[in-house]
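Good day; I would like, with your permission, to put a structural problem before you. A protein sequence and the structure tokens that stand for its backbone fold form the material at issue. The record follows directly beneath this note:
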Amino acid sequence: MPIPRSTTLLPVIAIGLLWGLNWPAVKFMLTELPPLTIRAVAFPVAALILAMLTRAAGQKLRPEPGEILPIIVTGVLVVFGFNVLTTLGQLQTETSKAVIIAYTMPGMTAVLAATILGEKLTGRQILAVLVGTSGLAVLASEDLDGLFARPLGPVIMLLAALSWSLGNVALKARKWSLSSLALTVWFFVISAIFCAPLAIIFEPPWQQAWPSSPVLWTWAYHILGPMVVCYALWTVIVGKLPASTAAITALLAPVVGMSSAVILLSEPVTWQKLVALLMVLVSITLVLLPSPARRVSSR
């Protein structure tokens, strides 16, 4: 039975808003919390809540024996690598810039899928990569001297986009016995296992001060909103929608992320950021929206 359009746009918009607002939320938490600690707490809590939702939905959680290694590799790339690197990247660059760089990942995924999985790279996808890359060039032109002097932030954000893209290619590379929601649980579990030792070694909890109430509330939002609600909605509802509708999330999140960074963090607005954001949005649209031929054939 098709999902009514009036009820599909609401979760799609909610995901875009929550994921977009997560960017300044993480930046704010970084004023009192170290990066690995933020993720080391968020990963296991999100895994536990999502596991309860999975069981409540009657879905199995036990993977097939041959899926364990692929789950580890995919989880490290799509959740651990992306989340940890984006947090580290925001320590080194403005959040508004970090958002733009991170959302080059759809075009990057298309290229990697063609290279690794042998998928056909369409003319629109090639154009998307060119437009997205040009957007990065415009963004870099804002402060070339600063970029050459402090390249670490943008490099980390590009690595985060690469990690997410590789993870999605790994996700598409096989047919899984588990549901998308159950897989997400394991991705968070794997990420928690990798992150906790690193946080203990490099950010000993006993050497940290207890964060303020605003940071704690933001931490709770970070876990319950972007991690639990967004992943649950995405896997349960958005996965059943047409690509053109689901694409709204990918387009809305960077707009909300950059806008909220400007409003909440008082980051400067420049024409380079606006043009780069527009070009990245065009790139995302070219990758995610179905071609006219596919739309006709699907009717």
Remarks:
- Residues 19-290 form one domain.
- DSSP finds 13 helices and no strands in the chain.
- Residues 294-299 have pLDDT under 50 and may be disordered.
- The chain has one domain: 19-290.
